[in-house]
Fold this sequence. Notes:
The complex is a heterodimer of chains A (551) and B (250). Chain A has 551 residues and is α/β, with parallel strands linked by helices. Chain A has helices spanning 38-50, 67-84, 106-115, 120-134, 174-183, 187-194, 204-217, 225-231, 233-239, 250-258, 277-280, 498-506, 511-522, 524-527, 532-545; strands at 221-224, 263-267, 293-298, 303-309, 320-321, 324-329, 334-341, 355-356, 359-364, 369-376, 381-384, 387-390, 396-405, 410-419, 425-434, 439-448, 456-465, 471-480, 486-495. In chain A, the strands form two sheets. In chain A, strands 1, 2, 3, 5, 6, 8, 9, 11, 12, 14, 16 and 18 form a twelve-stranded mixed sheet that branches. A seven-stranded parallel sheet of chain A has the order 4-7-10-13-15-17-19. In chain A, helix 11 (277-280) links the parallel strand 2 and strand 3. Classes of the chains: A alpha/beta (551), B alpha/beta (250).
Amino acid sequence: MPRHFVPRNDDLLFLRSFPFSVLIPLRGLFFLAARKNANKFAFFARSASSVPFFSLFLHDLYLRYNLAERMKEQNIDIKTTIEESDYKYGFTSDIETEFIPKGLNEEVIRLISAKKEEPEWMLELRLKAYRHWLTMKHPTWGHLDIPEIDFNDIIYFAAPKKKKQLASMDEVDPELKATFDKLGIPLEEQKVLAGVAVDAVFDSVSVKTTFQKELAEKGIIFCPISEAIREYPELVRKYLGSVVPYADNFYAALNTAVFSDGSFCYIPKGVRCPVELSTYFRINAQGTGQFERTLIVADEGAYVSYLEGCTAPQRDENQLHAAVVEIVVERDAEVKYSTVQNWYPGDKEGKGGIYNFVTKRGLCKENAHLFWTQVETGSAITWKYPSCVLMGDNSVGEFYSVAMTNNFQQADTGTKMIHIGRNTRSRIVSKGISAGQSQNAYRGLVKVMPKAENARNYSQCDSLLIGDRCGAHTFPTVDCRNSSAQLEHEATTSKISEEQLFYCNQRGLSTEDAVGLIVGGYAREVLAKLPMEFAVEAQKLLSISLEGSVG
Amino acid sequence: MLKIKNLRASVDGKEILRGIDFEVKAGEVHAIMGPNGSGKSTLASVIAGSDKFTVEADELSFEGEDLRDMSIEERARKGLFLGFQYPVEIPGVTMANFMKIAVNEQRKSRGEEPLTAAEFLKMMREKAKVVELDAKMTSRAVNEGFSGGEKKKNEIFQMAMLDPKLAILDETDSGLDIDALRIVATGVTKLHTPQNATVVITHYQRLLDYIVPDFVHVLYKGKIIYSGDKSLALKLEKEGYDWLINDYKE
């Protein structure tokens, strides 16, 4: 006989300035009565049950190879394609440019597909997705205030622009440079990030080649997804859309219709990827598209650790980023996916900034293990739920998140753990940090299907408030259909206290350093899950993102 | 070293310190005693620079510099240390990390190079001995899950690390068992030199068996109403404050 509990819902914790702390250990089953937010919850739960996931999302950064090289190639390709074709699509006036005019229609999609020399099936998929997208409405359930987006005012295809190259570091925006210095990014790398011509000391091309050779020897495929669609069509066709179908949600449909590029990664059976794909990716791609598509497949018994993102500040004029990341973790395989997201968050008045609406989901087969770790400090609006579908027996999903918002940023992020197989286990550790006048929501779904005998979940979601004008909200949802499940949920809300700051100040720490230290300590459990070098940078990033939030 | 003339401090319009004159010279040990609510902790906080209080004074200086122009951290870096009555917890931040930043900030303000990791660890091991602190403690989060005694030892450990010119210890003896009291008090005594000074705020004479004060002051209703030598503490222990308070009533 399932018992129904109503967990304490912290979602009214707006603008509270007093220290507040709740601890709710819950065992057994619980079901969230949605109270005021009935609509949101209903929508969330419904979409979650029909398709394993609903999430929007965004774009991250991506580190690819040395992009300049690739951009160049691509520009040439596109130009050649356009010039050679008769340009039957009616954009004759724009032949010289690398843009397709603003707006979205089937012609635009055909053109994107043609420019990327895609096979017919890919075009069909894009069109199907587009037609479905036309029938969908923009979701409204997020705890977010999103200005209306005019989807016909967006350029859906622009060849990655080559940034203007600067002659030396002296020409770089001093503020940007100061941030690089604070992050401790090596000078040569700073140059690449800032678009300064790089001398021979930093030969990322050869680094890339070295790694690629090593990867190729093991049969690992790691390339742009557009290349994979042409070179490995069977693999891509088998897996693309298998975790996030085009009809999954509004932005997944849009992404499937218009995605520009992204990464494809395949680790063959039994292979342990010898490098953190992070190190390899260290230099970020500039000008990657708004609609990224990533597909990672770890075949049976394989292992890979993948890092997306970069701690350096990312500037981008594109406002909307809607990416899709799909991960397939086959039997006995293990994937670690780490994200550090530091997109432009808008200015202190809340003007500008990226909308980061991303769908990320992994499918775990028998005994598979998937870790998501994310540190989100950027973007004006972050809306995403990296999730695990625990399909196979004994599979494990883990989610570790630090989401920080400052000034007028908004975040609605969390995860979904869908327990389908027997003895499946999941663990959620979410740490929200709100400062300024920002709004930060954790939204999570733990769903246990009828056949998921002995499923276990542990969820912990903590919120930290800095100042008295920000908001922290928690929307935990549990849908349990098997009475053998064991589910635990803990939540706390805390504040950086005057006493803590006084204590640190009295030991000689400035208030800014003290806040950074306290926040770093709070987030330590999550940061510890990141690859070492990124953990250090991510901690610094948290401090930097908080600048000006106190005092 | 520390010069205070006619110091007044209030919070929310309520005056807590009502004209304090107090001077500490290098090499001295002062004890401040007084009934609960007389303003002892406020005095410590005001000297450390807490912004909770509205402060007025004819003089408030440390080593010839006006404290009122300095932030809390600037005062700390100049060598002013406050041992807290209730040390706060900072979850997830190890003592080692916390102290490393504190020590290096202080060094930076003096124009010195930061310590290397090895130098720092060595220093930390040595200083931990002063208060018989288990070196493992330094890998725990600041005060998190510390017992009352550990927290107080930890304050004196931090004092040893930062080597302040003036240490103000706010009821460092409260809540300690007899052994812990001896360890903490002996630690403070070991750190005392002719170049630095210590102000201990306490309710109990027994602390002063270890830390022998040159001066004992009685604070009452925001004023120092009586000062004497060590024998004053003994007399207070025996007779309480009544004789002084009665005496003081206008």
